[in-house]
Design a protein that fits this description.
about 150 residues, five-stranded mixed beta sheet, about 35% helix, elongated, alpha/beta, 2 domains
Length: about 150
């Protein structure tokens, strides 16, 4: 059957439940906002392609992602890192030393940007919440014991 005779409603008959949206403020870095825009564009293109092919399942999955990324874009709050290096805050990179001597460096970013394997943690993660407002030389408690903040930049 020609694509011209397939109703758009047939393709969108499959409706997937929305992805959960975090109850926290959607703080993002400038790069995080660009990543949201990129994801939205990618899923809009995927939806068009799936619709053109008549792939109802792929179209529904892409539409679910579009709803999620539109919501995240709508409530995104771009936060630029403060210049003050005396305390950890959103967008800053923090280096700390654990009791066993290991050092850990991470950047505090938005929830959708966070990827601990790449050295970024969400501002609502326990680690980020523990260091926020603290600065070099401070000893703070995290899961696993006390740590010393070595640097904030």
């Amino acid at each position: 059957m020609s694509r011209a005779f397939v109703k758009e409603a047939d393709i969108e008959a499959i409706v997937l439940p929305d992805r959960p949206i975090s109850p926290h403020r959607n703080l993002v870095t400038e790069a995080g906002l660009m990543a949201i825009e990129t994801a939205l564009g990618r899923f809009e293109a995927a939806h068009r392609a799936a619709t053109d092919k008549g792939d109802m399942h792929a179209a529904a999955a892409a539409l679910r992602e579009i709803r999620y990324w539109r919501a995240r874009r709508a409530n995104a709050e771009v936060v630029r890192p403060a210049y003050d290096k005396r305390e950890a805050s959103f967008g800053k990179t923090v280096t700390l030393r654990r009791n066993d001597g290991r050092e850990q460096t991470f950047r505090i970013v938005g929830e959708d940007e966070a990827d601990p394997s790449r050295g970024t943690v969400s501002h609502v993660s326990p680690l980020a919440r523990a260091v926020l407002g603290s600065g070099p030389g401070d000893i703070i408690q995290i899961v696993g014991g006390p740590v010393k903040i070595l640097d904030v930049h």
